[in-house]
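One thing: mind reviewing this one?
=====
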Amino acid sequence: MSFQAYLDNIEDKTGLTPREFIALAKERGFDDPSTKAGVIVDWLKQDYGLGRGHAMALVHVIKNGPKIDAKHVGGSGSHRDESDTLWLDGKKNRP
């Protein structure tokens, strides 16, 4: 599953876009660089029922923003994306 597909599935499950999760994380102080991934994963699991893989996708965008490493773009494989920039504003708003 591509990184973007993880984010799209999270939106399907929760009704929240990745950008909305970033705002919620910021309200809780989880955007602080010292916040451990496990704290965020626990929050997402408890409050939204997300599994570890989906939660870790959100951890990435909360901590690093929409850019992903170019090694995950194009080519083949199960975790390949079309772009090095993830869309965070919801599936229905995607250009």
Q: What stands out?
A: The longest helix spans residues 52-64. Residues 3-72 form one domain.
